Amino acid sequence: MSARTSASSFASSSAGETPRAASTALVINAQSGTSSIAQPHAASPLKPGRRDTLEVQQSKALSYILRHGASKEQLKLRPDGFIKVDDLLRRPKLKGLTVEGLHGIVANDAKRRYTLASEVDQLTGGPCEWIRANQGHSLPVDFLELIPIATAEELPVAVHGTYLPLWEVIRVQGLKTMSRTHIHLARGPPGSPDVTSGIRPNCNVYIYVDAKAAMADGIEFFSSANDVILTRGQNGVLSPRYFQKVSKPDGTLLA
């Protein structure tokens, strides 16, 4: 069954937190390419902080289930990443979330994390709504709507955000997919025009990738539904030889 995207289509990147304790650092490492620490399990939903609104709590739980936790929640994930909305809203982690509330989370998500799709239910003949995360999965998802980037001219800037404590490992080992299916890049650093997703705003190291050199060596790049740039590199690794430059947010060069 293929999803037919409804009139409103939304999506997201992998937003995260500033590194704090060792367990948090493990999650960041999994998303930033280092392998100096043991491979972590997929991130579990963060316990809502006292400052979180109900919508933020529900959004975090939604993101976790769609990207990482469908199997644990006993939800059927289609090969294209979609989960039936009715089934999703029955899960205890989303207790109290209504269809209208779900639509509000999707519509108000600045980074366009999610896509809603409406189909005809083959059993009942009535309408059926589905939802998926547009990227950031640790679960195997084979048929996300990824747009191949054919030429380097289509990708003049490709930058990966990370943190200073991780840079010394990344500079030697390169960027890795780790627990995710792709390495995540953005079309520019945070604050760049038309860049809505791809780098956490608290990253303090920007790795600029030479897409032309990488593509010349057969490395493929794709654009997700919310315009995050995705690549698997070569066997899950993007070598440091493709690092064009590395800088801090203030422009100070690290490499």
From TrEMBL:
Its EC number is 2.7.1.160. One of its GO terms (biological process) is tRNA splicing, via endonucleolytic cleavage and ligation. Pfam families: PTS_2-RNA. Signal peptide: none annotated. It is an enzyme of class 2 (transferase). Keywords: NAD, Transferase. Residues 1-21, 34-53 are annotated as: Disordered. GO terms for molecular function: tRNA 2'-phosphotransferase activity. It catalyses: 2'-phospho-[ligated tRNA] + NAD(+) = mature tRNA + ADP-alpha-D-ribose 1'',2''-cyclic phosphate + nicotinamide. Residues 1-15 have a biased composition (Low complexity). Catalyzes the last step of tRNA splicing, the transfer of the splice junction 2'-phosphate from ligated tRNA to NAD to produce ADP-ribose 1''-2'' cyclic phosphate. Belongs to the KptA/TPT1 family. This is 2'-phosphotransferase. The gene is Mo06276.
